[in-house]
Amino acid sequence: MFTGIIEAVGEVAAREPKGEDLRLYVRxxxxxxxxxxxxxxxxxxxxxxxxxxxxxxGFWADVxxxxxxxxxLGELRVGDRVNLEKALTPTTRLGGHLVxxxxxxxxxxxxRQSEGRSERFRIRAPSALAKxxxxxxxxxxxGVSLTVNAVExxxxxxxxxxxTLAETTISEYRPGRRxxxxxxxxxxxxxxxxxxxxxxxxxxxxxxxxLAEHGFLGVxxxx
Length: 223
Known about the structure:
With 223 residues, this protein is mainly β. The protein has four helices and 13 strands.
């Protein structure tokens, strides 16, 4: 588990295709690796990876075909910068929100504009994730725990303060940039809990009819 509070910005130092998989070497910059052992988890732009070798100034990690299909890690090239966070411990301050490092989908930056000393971004999420994104709720973008300012359909707004711009790769975002998205854990589990026994049925999901049937929506009256 992670908090979404980025500890360092690293750099892709090498990439080795391995059939349908990929092996990445990430140079970790100021990230302290003194307490990291083989098999430990490190979030790379929001993706939980396992350190399989620790040469000293970074770590190697294997990226499975499943992870490549659900994230933008496969698009990374040598020299690209990435957000880094070590897994939390029982004494870690939970400054962001609970983040699993299991990316739900890929979003796209569609707009960027300055607002005072901050920058406002608009990001389009996959349609299937829109129901999990709420105003003033939490979302993880490339491993960064952020607050959603506004939502319109599958598009959400973020207001990024100078500190976050300086300490993450968000400063590099331009329209067209693809980003890893992880929605709030509570929203995902709440959906399954609301389904109750129907959760075991193939293709089960929350619909307006289901919510109305179980009293979560008011009864509509004809005019």
